[in-house]
Design brief:
single chain, mainly alpha, 5 helices, 0% strand
């Protein structure tokens, strides 16, 4: 059987990661998938590389799950500085970046230099 491949895999990988981090439900599902793979024997380090997470983050998820179960994986309230850009300004930046990088979706809030495709 021929192995299937995703066209524009590098660019779409970034778009897929951004889509995962878009909603709280997706983040929770991603954590569950990571835990499932850890339970099947994959290392936190390998999962971090595959899913674009810091391996220590995956380790913290495993530790929290072992201590408190499924509820420990849900997103809690986050403190931090309020955004300086309006929602419309962020949407304009995201739109421009999508055009520049030729991706279907882009989110400045999940930008990681290491996962961005290089411009020619």
């Amino acid at each position: 059987m021929k192995r299937l491949e995703i066209t524009n895999a590098k660019e779409r990988s970034v778009a897929i990661r951004n889509e995962i981090s878009r909603s709280e439900e997706s983040k929770h599902d991603n954590r569950l998938h990571d835990l499932l793979l850890v339970s099947e024997g994959m290392s936190c380090h390998d999962l971090g590389i595959i899913f674009g997470e810091d391996p220590r983050t995956v380790e913290r998820w495993v530790k929290r799950f072992n201590e408190k179960g499924f509820n420990a994986l849900k997103e809690g309230k986050r403190s931090g500085r309020p955004p300086k850009l309006t929602t419309q300004q962020m949407a304009e930046i995201n739109s421009d970046m999508s055009i520049i990088y030729g991706m279907e979706s882009f989110s400045c809030t999940t930008y990681r230099r290491s996962t961005m495709p290089k411009l020619d």
